[in-house]
Specification:
- The chain is an all-alpha fold.
- The chain has helices at 18-28, 33-42, 60-73, 75-88, 95-118.
- 59% of the residues lie in helices and 0% in strands.
Length: 123
């Protein structure tokens, strides 16, 4: 009796941390892991997963509240007014204090812009 020629695939081993395996199983959504990995690597028609950023926001609600509070506080405007007064000579401040006020304004603007970007609200 002639032997049938069967094509066997060669095994491939991949070591994962428990966290990596959990993530892979979650992404596979019920597919066997081998099949999911093959699809991700070799399927040209696959829908490529799109992500907004590398570090997803954990609490959108909290970040939204923080952004709102920062906007309502008018802290940036108050600091700008102090800096302008200092620059006009209306406040008797040292050059170091003036620089600190201007730096504080820039830092707060940067924090607000970063928060808006993390929420996908940057313009």
């Amino acid at each position: 009796m002639p032997e049938q020629t069967t094509r066997k695939t060669s095994p491939f081993c991949l070591r994962l941390t428990p966290e990596e395996r959990t993530l892979l199983e979650r992404e596979a959504a019920g597919l066997p892991l081998g099949e999911y990995i093959r699809q991700q690597i070799f399927d040209e028609n696959r829908i490529k997963r799109r992500t907004r950023n590398k570090h997803p926001v954990k609490d959108h609600r909290l970040l939204s509240q923080l952004l709102g509070e920062l906007g309502r506080s008018r802290l940036v405007n108050n600091l700008n007014q102090l800096a302008r007064s200092a620059n006009c000579g209306l406040l008797n401040l040292t050059p170091e204090v003036k620089t600190a006020l201007l730096n504080a304004c820039a830092d707060i603007r940067h924090i607000r812009e970063t928060l808006m970007k993390s929420l996908g609200l940057d313009r």
